[in-house]
Amino acid sequence: MRIHFLTPFVKMVETVITESILGRAASKGHVVYNIHDLFTFADAPHYKIDDYQFGGGSGMVMKPEPVFRAFDAVMKDIPDGVHSRVIFPTPDGKPLKHALAMELSLEENLIFINGHYKGIDQRIRDELVTDEISIGDYVLTGGELPALVILDSVVRLIPGVLNSYESAQTDSFTSGLLDYPHYTRPEKFRGYEVPKVLMSGHHKMIADWRLEKQKEKTRERRSDLWEKYLASQEIGVKNG
Ligand code: ADE
Predict the structure, then answer these.
(1) Shared domain check, 182 and 66
(2) Which residues form the domain of 97?
(3) Taking the model in full, what pTM does it have?
(4) How many A from CA of 92 to the centre of ligand 1?
(5) Residue 16 half-sphere exposure, CB side, CA atoms within 13 Å?
(6) Is the domain of 141 the same as that of 206?
């Protein structure tokens, strides 16, 4: 997969990528990153990438020209027929869910356009963007962190990126339930003990205990997921 960032904060993106599993994914040859500095696509002599908004109102808006030019430069290198998704992280986008991360992990090209200031010129969203994605109901100062969150959720699902012990197979959400509790050595720590069943060596009992904990946690914390899980179980029973 080839991943492009169009951003005014190149260092920030580079640092997170090189210091994380995202960087390891590139070393292993699963992904290639191209980080494009939006300032280099702005007009001399001031290289401005933002401006006041028409109609008044506080906050600057990202100008269309640098983004369209950077986008054209990226598209020139993508051969005809190779599919791309153009992602704009924004609080008013579609919520990021495991299923969307799965879908994006199958793409050949992801292009992230990172907004800043009050927002970006609507023509960028109308003409270039295929996916507007929100990482939650809160507002961050810019698009880089949400873009990196989206990217991390996608790249870890590419087969081979995670080692088997980090496997995404048993993640929360893969099964529709939240994850079960995990323990490691020591068996006793400050008076707290590891549940006996995990030391039993009895695979069926351990699997049952874990499933029970998953259900308990999901029922208590996420009634939305719990309802969906119950409905899926009923369908499973009906279909035999
Ligand atoms: N940009 C600022 N806040 C955001 C959010 N919650 N999700 C995605 N992009 C954002």
Answers:
(1) no
(2) 2-155
(3) 0.93
(4) 8
(5) 16
(6) no
pLDDT in tens, 10-61: 999 999 999 999 999 999 999 999 999 999 999 999 999 999 999 999 899 9
Domain CATH number, residue 59: 3.40.1280.10
Could you give the C-alpha distances from 87 to 51, 175, 225, in angstroms and in order? Answer: 22, 26, 26
For residue 238, is pLDDT > 80? Answer: no
The phi and psi torsions of 142 (rounded to 5 degrees) equal -165, 180
Closest listed residue to residue 67, CA positions, set 89, 50, 92, 84: 50
Average pLDDT over the chain reads: 94
90 pocket-lining for ligand 1 (C-beta < 6 Å): yes
* Same structural domain, 10 and 93: yes
Are the beta carbons of 53 and 118 closer than 8 angstroms? yes
Decide if 177 is inside a domain: yes
Question: Is the domain of 227 the same as that of 110?
Answer: no
Question: Are 137 and 29 part of one and the same domain?
Answer: yes
Q: Which atom of ligand 1 is nearest to the CA of 135?
A: 7
Residue 148 Cβ inside 6 Å of ligand 1? The answer reads no
**Tens digits of per-residue pLDDT, 145-196?**
999 999 999 999 999 999 875 677 777 788 899 999 999 999 999 999 999 9
Name the domain count of the chain: 2
